[in-house]
Amino acid sequence: MRSETGFRAPIESYKEGKRTYYRYSDRNYSLAMQQINPIEADLLKTTLDMLGRFKGLPQFDFVQELGLKLKKNFQLEDLDECIFFDQNEYLKNLHLLGDLLKFIQQKHVLQVVYKSFNQNKEEAFLIHPYFLKQYNKRWFLFGQRDSFDSWTNLALDRMTTFEAAGGIIFIPPRETHDVYFEDIVGVSKPIGTVCQFIKIKIVKSLWPYIDSKPFHPSQTVVERTDTYKTIQLEVVPNYEFYAQVLGLGSAVEILGPMEVRAVIRQKLEENVKRYME
């Protein structure tokens, strides 16, 4: 209780005969009055600094005010700029996250007006919202649209408006978040596609990157040589999967299935054609 890493309490000792007694030197002292110790102060400063990086997220609006109060009450010093997050502060409609989260928690059916990238006009529809997910610095709302069998994901920045739709019974999800995402990379799940075993050849220079940051949890090594590694994934080939593979350029090669390899080849040929024009 007297140590610098503990309560730093003003404790003194005195003897009466052969016995030693301990007491507070300040009779008005209480542990409830004690400030946090230096170790706790460092942990609190680090935590506040990390939370402060979530700028623009409505559910973290309280952090700035709370941080100022804590720094004043506990006499904390500001932490130098030591950590940064890859957060897109300028994402359109980021301020809607708080309201969407509230509607999800309250299980309200939503009337949404939405305009996707491949549509010229807005469309209005009902959706039963289940959860929010961030991917590649964008936010997506997942839920069940009326008359649809599978889940729908809506990019937050493509929403025009949304509001609670009264008088409609909320349909709970039929599967969990983990089950839905267990066989995909990213957030999209094309209708009618099935999970496949995909083999990818990776050159030696790129392998440490892929080894430390796998494409997918199902990633396993099926062949090792001095110049390359071959991995196998069990996934549904979707837009995000193809984008990741193409982003690695000539350092990777799809070995199979042939239909997946053909998609990559077609995309590469289209790119080459654009640069030849």
Which structural class best describes the helix and strand composition? alpha+beta
Largest sheet: 5 strands, antiparallel
Largest sheet strand order: 6-5-4-3-7
Query: Span from first to last CA?
Result: 77 Å
Low-confidence segments, given as residue ranges, are none
**Can you tell me the overall shape?**
extended
Helix content, binned percent:
25-40%
Counting DSSP E segments of at least 2 residues, the number of strands comes to 11
Order of helices and strands: EEHHHEEEEEHEHEEHEH
- Average pLDDT works out at 83
Radius of gyration: 28 Å
Strand fraction: 25-35%
Query: So how many helices?
Result: 7
What does this structure look like?
Helix 1 (38-51) packs antiparallel against helix 2. 27% of the residues lie in helices and 27% in strands. By secondary structure, it is α+β, with helices and mostly antiparallel strands.
Give a short summary of the structure.
The protein is an alpha+beta fold and 277 residues long. It has helices at 38-51, 62-74, 97-106, 177-181, 207-212, 239-247, 258-276; strands spanning 11-16, 19-24, 110-114, 123-135, 138-145, 151-155, 159-164, 196-203, 220-224, 228-235, 252-256. A hairpin with an 8-residue loop joins strand 3 and strand 4 (123-135).
Which tags fit this structure?
277 residues, alpha+beta, four-stranded antiparallel β-sheet, 27% helix
List the helices and strands and how they pair.
Elements: E1 11-16, E2 19-24, H1 38-51, H2 62-74, H3 97-106, E3 110-114, E4 123-135, E5 138-145, E6 151-155, E7 159-164, H4 177-181, E8 196-203, H5 207-212, E9 220-224, E10 228-235, H6 239-247, E11 252-256, H7 258-276
